[in-house]
């Protein structure tokens, strides 16, 4: 019992299309690897997503340092030059990415510092707060002696409920 055939047409649902792309892309990369191993074939695969992202597979054994015994000195030199150019491009790309990440992190730090600075109390504000806090809103003498204040009521009426 095999799988049923599906009609090959564009998948309209964006989410389903993306899921299918990921699954089939991984299957395609696996098939390329299997073909290179089983048949000792040189395989290169390039896939671009709808967003322009690149997915690639290559099994060039020479780039991995395998099967070099059959190469001439000239071919080895060419391979070495290709590898050096590739390393230069990789390092350049890595440097750009690290610089971009550094810029983003610096921007985040600056934003955090701005927020902290906005939330900080200045010296003058702190002095004003301390001055307000040190004021006695109720003089202890009045409270202790039981001296009537404008807010005290000696003639409180008791309300009995029930």
TrEMBL record:
Location(s), subcellular: Nucleus
UniProt xrefs under Gene3D superfamilies: Transcription factor, MADS-box
InterPro entries registered for this protein in UniProt: MADS-box/MEF2_TF, MEF2-like_N, TF_Kbox, TF_MADSbox, TF_MADSbox_sf
GO biological process, one term: positive regulation of transcription by RNA polymerase II
Keyword hit for Nucleus: yes
GO molecular function, one term: RNA polymerase II transcription regulatory region sequence-specific DNA binding
SUPFAM superfamilies: SRF-like
Keywords carried by this UniProt record: DNA-binding, Nucleus, Transcription, Transcription regulation
PANTHER family according to UniProt: SERUM RESPONSE FACTOR HOMOLOG
Function: Probable transcription factor.
Record's protein name: Agamous-like MADS-box protein AGL11 isoform X3
Organism encoding this protein: Gossypium australe
